[in-house]
Design brief:
Layout: H1 4-34, E1 38-40, H2 42-65, H3 74-95, E2 103-105, H4 123-138, H5 142-170, H6 173-176
Keywords: Membrane, Transmembrane, Transmembrane helix
Pfam family, one: ICMT
Subcellular location: Membrane
Length: 189
């Protein structure tokens, strides 16, 4: 199978999905700030955005420049990608107006603990991590996989503590998720 058509379809989908997410995030940001929400993590946010933009640029460059092919394992990897996209939609729907690409916290808001948040604290970051792995694996772009898996791990070491600190400061986050792991799903009875 030629990898040009699947590659173009994937890139088109990812660009469209990210643009839709930015529209949702901007709308939610406006709604939250009108109600007195506070933004945290401004210092690192621009690096997060840059990292995501560079991910796509490096992925496309590596695919084209090194003529990387669709992996023979693409059906299994693509299934993981589809499951991740379904999870992303579930996350956005579960958080509703509170979902954002920025850390924006509405003081005294009830902490969301439905959808995938019933099982873990940070499902969104799990999905982002999954994407940084499965997207490069689909087309055997191993430089992209290695570089951005490491960069993402580093970014999450900054971002997650910042987000948790903000939530603890302005909401009942600590009490709500006191017995939850950041990434390992909790079995809910």
């Amino acid at each position: 199978m030629s990898s040009s058509t699947p590659f173009l379809c994937l890139i088109s989908y990812l660009i469209t999905a990210r643009l839709i997410e930015l529209v949702i995030a901007k709308r939610n940001e406006k709604w939250l700030k009108q109600r007195g929400a506070v933004e945290f993590g401004k210092d690192h946010y621009r690096y997060l955005v840059t990292m995501h933009m560079l991910f796509f640029a490096v992925f496309v460059f590596e695919k084209i420049f090194f003529n990387c092919r669709l992996t023979p394992l693409w059906p299994a990897i693509f299934l993981l990608f589809i499951l991740g996209q379904m999870m992303r939609i579930w996350i956005i729907a579960s958080l509703g107006k509170y979902w954002n690409t920025k850390i924006i916290v509405l003081p005294n808001a009830k902490v969301v603990k439905n959808g995938p948040y019933r099982f873990m604290k940070h499902p969104n970051y799990c999905i982002v991590t999954l994407e940084f792995i499965v997207i490069p694996l689909l087309f055997s772009t191993y430089y992209t996989l290695f570089i951005f898996t490491l960069l993402n791990m580093f970014m999450l070491m900054i971002r997650i503590p910042e987000e948790e600190k903000a939530l603890k400061r302005l909401t009942e986050y600590e009490g709500t998720f006191h017995d939850y792991n950041r990434f390992i799903p909790k079995i809910v009875k």
